[in-house]
Amino acid sequence: MNISQEKQAIINVTNRHLKVESGPGSGKSTLLINFIKQRLGEGVDEERILVLMFSNAAKDKFSSQLQNISVSNIQIKTLHSYGYQLYAQLCSSQKVKRAHVASMSDIYLQRWFRQVLKDANSKFANSKYHHINQQTLESFYTFVTVKRNVEFEIKGISHFSALERLTNPVFEKAYEMITEQKIDMGIIPINEIVAIPAEVFSINSVESRVLKDKYDYILIDESQDLSEIDFAMVRNHLGSNTKLIMVGDADQSINEFRGSNSNIFRNLDLILNDVLSFKLQGNYRFSEGLSSLAYKLFNYENKEPQHFVQENTYASIEIERYFDKRNPLVKALNEETLLLDNCLILREKNAFPLYELMLLDNNIPYYLNKSKSFVFHKPIAMLLGYLLLANKQCISVFPLNIQNSIVKGMLYTPYPQAQPEIAQWLTSRIPSITFEMLTTLKNSTSENNALGNIPIVSDMIRNSFSPQSTVCSILEAMKSYKCFSPLLSSNAAILNQSGLSQIRLLEYFKSTQMTVERLVMLIVKSFNPSQNKEDALQILTMHEAKGSEFLNVFIGGLNDGVMPLIRKEEDKSKSALEAEKRLLFVAMTRTIKKLTLLCPIDETLAKNSISMSNTSYMPYKTSRFISLLT
Prior knowledge:
Blueprint lengths: L4 H7 L5 E6 L5 H14 L7 E5 L2 H11 L8 E4 H16 L5 E3 L4 H15 L12 H17 L10 H6 L2 H17 L1 E3 L2 H12 L1 H4 L8 E4 L7 H8 L7 E6 L13 H5 L1 H4 L3 E6 L1 E2 L4 H8 L11 E2 L7 E7 L5 H6 L8 E5 L5 H10 L4 E3 L9 H12 L2 H4 L4 H11 L9 H10 L5 H9 L10 H11 L6 H8 L6 H4 L1 H4 L5 H13 L4 H11 L10 E5 H4 L4 E6 L18 H15 L2 E10 L2 H5 L2 E3 L2 E3 L8 H4 L1
Helix pairs in contact: 1-2, 4-9, 5-8, 9-11, 16-26, 16-27, 17-19, 17-22
């Protein structure tokens, strides 16, 4: 492999810390692999090199690339897995029991946070958190993460804009309470796995000797996404002989929700001594036209020009504004001339069900990157539960895990107790569901009045509709039941976690006259995903797409409220909108040959703007970011 002169100049540096600014398509993986190759050729032991990544996907991809140079003993870890390794080492040396490590999806962490927020809320008469929903929990989790990073703040460098958006008295009080309780609870939020060793090794000189100069070189990819905690953990390794190689791009900083702070990377030469800075100017992925378009998001006045190594004469960019029923994605994927290696990138997983149904309905193969089928999407599972329990024959076609998901979806609106008679009614229709299973599912939620309506609604559906009935006609009938009206109302749904994706799904059912029979057929079809991934469309979120590249990229759902994502008032702050721009930039720069931006519109719905905190945004209006690109 030929290495450019600019990369070789970086690789030749052996005795200084390195900061390498590397935009999309600049070949940073090639740089890191050849840096390792040259160090090994100079006699550096494999075990003296540590590589830190931000995701398992990035780690696995880099590991496979290293196999080409016959490397086997280099440690390649995600920051969290390496933090856990150090945490386990500390627990062993101090003979302390390990705590349960929990992410935001962990039910034990959710219960703890929910209770703490309730207790904190009770201390404030005018608090807005009388009802603690999933969105509140996620905001608090972000607050806890960023607040913890403040304790490791690098003076003069750090700026916690996310904390400024989220700070309120209830969150502050709740943070104090979890700090006091976490040892007794035996639960550690996942980011604490990095914070604990970062803290202990910083203040304990005996423990820190284990880390100082353990490695000759520590390489960090995507360094713009380091948090204060991450950097404190890494910094504990820096003795007189360890050199730090940080590669990143501040324009691709997309993990502020987990406390990342691109200022650490930007100002590395102010934080550490003896730092040599480089900037990769070559672009090996896409055309100058696409680069110019993507960078319009940031309105740079003096952007340094890139050198485009390969003339990409086939590159094209299209912005499609369309009505849902005429989605150009379907048309493009049915064209014989379409390139292989296609990817659909969406802002979040809630948007997956609509596109999955659309693709199944048009016989277009697709696959998900470790994501669950749309059947697991809670609103879908809830609807399926009531539709299918009305027809005992239908349920038998679903695998056990899907049956369980459907019943859990029926508990989507929480309920305080699973009544034995309801459990008996359910188990008579789905033999695989037991009362114990219902109790477990019930314990994952709270405060619900929906479960008691299962027999009534299901019997109503069975007696009033046939498999040829449209889904929309059944949903309209279900609206008469008080417990479902909030879930099936467009104006209410836009404010909950499902939001616009649920509205669009209902619109798709309506525009296609989707029947129960056809819906079940499509779901059964989804159990057999495409085995030939080369011919199938891959569906990723914008965060999942980071680090990947594809010949042909579609970016879907470019509407206000989705991109930028707006769920609450603080999402409209300048810093939040800038973070959304960076996320769209990452998605746009995944393509090699063709980029299509999909902007669904509906003139009728667009006129009915939805109010949020006395201001409005229009979810069927083209994203405000599109105006920056045209």
